[in-house]
Fold these 3 entries.
Entry 1:
Amino acid sequence: MLRANAKYKNGINHLPQSEKQNIVISEWRLGLFGLILSLTILTSKILYANHENIRSVLFEKRYITYETIVTDGEIVIQHAWVTVLKYSWFWFPIVCGSLATWFTGLMVYIDSSVPGMQPPSPISPSKYKMQSGHSFHLNYIFAIIIGFLVCGYMFIRGSSLEFFTH
């Protein structure tokens, strides 16, 4: 060890300050050398384990034709469409219910005597809600109920996009 040759008297280090500084610098250099050595070993192991993949990426040229790209793209799109159709029993009723809620809420908002103020919408400032005396009006609750009814009806019916493709 680096401090083995230090002069100790009753467990107290009696080295001059300059020698203590040399020991610290030597330990720092040894630590840096160890770090560089370990990084070199790790890098060489990784390169050796993956040398075939690295060589194929760096040195082999693959020429891809337009027909290959089109064929691969068609396969990807076909797989994506099959996946969309497979799970459309779940997401299609939710999307339709959300659109029904949005459309009904928009009709209620536009049909108001003063849109957003009389009756106040759920996102209106609280001063308009205080004027009317209600925090949430039945008109907007009706819009949400319509969305749930549409979604529930489509779930019960088993609606999905698979019926439209056959």
Entry 2:
Amino acid sequence: MESEPEFKYKQCIIIRNDVKMSCGKRCAQAGHAAIGAYEKSSPTLKKAWLSEGQKKVVLKVNDQRALFEIKTLAETAGIAAVLIQDAGMTEIPPGTITALGLGPAKSEDLDKITGSLSLL
């Protein structure tokens, strides 16, 4: 029996649970967060993460304040972090902060910051 692959790197995408969005809208915001965080990451981390399969974990928080707190913790730890602000063209008001993208970074470093969050 094949063993599960071990991922040393990952991205964490965190979605606000208090903003009412359709499933498709949440997916779009997660995509924006993944790309935004990737673009801010170092070339070395990008290469390592890409080479092992681009693991992503999508998590949720209860409010905007929690997103800002996690972003601050990540940046203090040297992890690429990007907040996503919606343009307001469809379901939610313009300027609404919907998501946070972190990494790619070492899984163990992200777990220190996001380990208590629930999966979306």
Entry 3:
Amino acid sequence: MASPMRIRATEQDGVVDVKVLMRHAMETGLRKGSDGKAIPAWYIETVEAKVGDKVVFTALFGPAVSKDPFLNFKLKGSAKKGDTIAVTWKDNKGESRTDDTQVK
């Protein structure tokens, strides 16, 4: 199981600022290990944020994104203080992780 994401969501003047730190190795498949063999590709492909059942943000990632990616986005009119924002990532090996936070 992947490590929990660190998510912070704060509202100011009707705009919710969401910051997400995802723990993931993000291997490209091009790097070689100490044995000289290629390390298999393993990276996040999709990231989705929901408020309730409504998808409010979607991103497509690939092997060029760095290890432990940080994502910052803003929502206007989609969330308010007290709402729960759930963030889910899925990787190329079929693994996924969902974590959530309340807007402060």
